Amino acid sequence: MTFKKIILNGALLSLAMLGVAACTTIAKTEPVADMAHNSKNSLDWAGAYKGTMPCADCEGIDTVITLKQDGTYTSQTKYLGKGDDKVFTENGKFSWSEDGSTIMADGMRLKVGENHITWLDGDGKVITGDLAKMFVLQKIADTPLAETYWKLVEINGQPVKPTASEPYMILKADGSVNGSSGCNRMMGSYTAKDMGRISFGQMAVTKMFCMKDMETEQQFYNVLSQADNYTIVGDTLQLNKARMAPLAKFEAVYLR
């Protein structure tokens, strides 16, 4: 959405003098601020940004912040050198500053630049000093198909319902596939070719029974058997059949 803020200051002086009826108006117009060309409106800001933030009592904080066009964000952090490799995930909504340069959410302020975001201090100022570069997160290009943890988020046009275990898949560089259907573990093979073509082989699965999750599981297997092409935009993978609506959507999980 394009918006403009016009700053207009006018000065009106009315001078009344004894015996003289006179009115003088002096109008002063300051330059109009061009708000059509700011970070919000001019940059391709939606996507995932990654970096290692400073840490007072660890080796660093691996951080991925994903900004979405719908005004929501996901933040993933992992404290290095702690031994447990636990990933902390937060989701929420963000808003833009009035000048369209900064994103604000839950005490977090991020200055948006060309293919990067900069973490600001509590006063909204850029952090300086020896560690300044560590507060800059770089945008991740379109995520590679292989060696990525793809979390299933939508199937047949509907959001994925909560399941016993997170449904996902990892397509390995050697042509193998492993993951979870939401209940059972699965493994198999795939072939990816030019022009976004893809096909999956028969999946071998464990034999657990999850009463509430069997529908999602069967839909997942059906998607893999039908998909013949894929598209990746940013951190989102779509499996498709011909030119039909997407069969399923996945989001990349960068820290796990």
What's the helix count?
2
Mean pLDDT: 85
Unreliable segments of 5+ consecutive residues: 1-33
The top-level CATH class of the largest domain is Mainly Beta
Radius of gyration: 26 Å
Shape, please? globular
Going by helix content, strand content and strand pairing, the class is mainly beta
CATH topology of the largest domain: Lipocalin
How many DSSP E strands?
A: 19
Strand and helix map with partners:
Blueprint: H1 39-42, E1 47-53, E2 60-67, E3 72-80, E4 87-93, E5 95-96, E6 102-105, E7 108-113, E8 116-119, E9 136-139, E10 149-155, E11 158-159, E12 168-171, E13 176-180, E14 185-192, E15 198-200, E16 204-205, H2 214-226, E17 229-233, E18 236-240, E19 248-253
Antiparallel strand pairs: 1-2, 1-9, 2-3, 3-4, 5-6, 6-7, 7-8, 8-9, 10-11, 10-12, 10-19, 12-13, 13-14, 14-15, 14-16, 17-18, 18-19
Structure description:
The chain is mostly beta strands. It folds into two domains: 42-139, Lipocalin (Beta Barrel); 149-253, Lipocalin (Beta Barrel). 7% of the residues lie in helices and 38% in strands. The chain is built from two helices and 19 strands. The chain has helices at residues 39-42, 214-226; strands at 47-53, 60-67, 72-80, 87-93, 95-96, 102-105, 108-113, 116-119, 136-139, 149-155, 158-159, 168-171, 176-180, 185-192, 198-200, 204-205, 229-233, 236-240, 248-253.
